[in-house]
Amino acid sequence: MGKVGHTFIDLEEVDSTNLYAERMLQKGSVAEGTVILAKFQTAGMGQDDHQWESASGQNLTFSIVLHPRFLPPGRQFLLNKVISLGVLDSLADYVEGATIKWPNDILIGSKKIGGILIRINVEGESLETAIVGIGLNVNQTKFDPSLTQATSLVQVLHQELKLKEALILLCNAIDMRYSQLKNNNNEQLKSDFHQKLLGYKLERKFVVDGQQIIGIIEGVDEFGRLLVIHPGEPVKAYAHKEIEYLLS
Ligand code: BTN
Question: Does 107 score more than 90 pLDDT?
Answer without folding.
Answer: yes
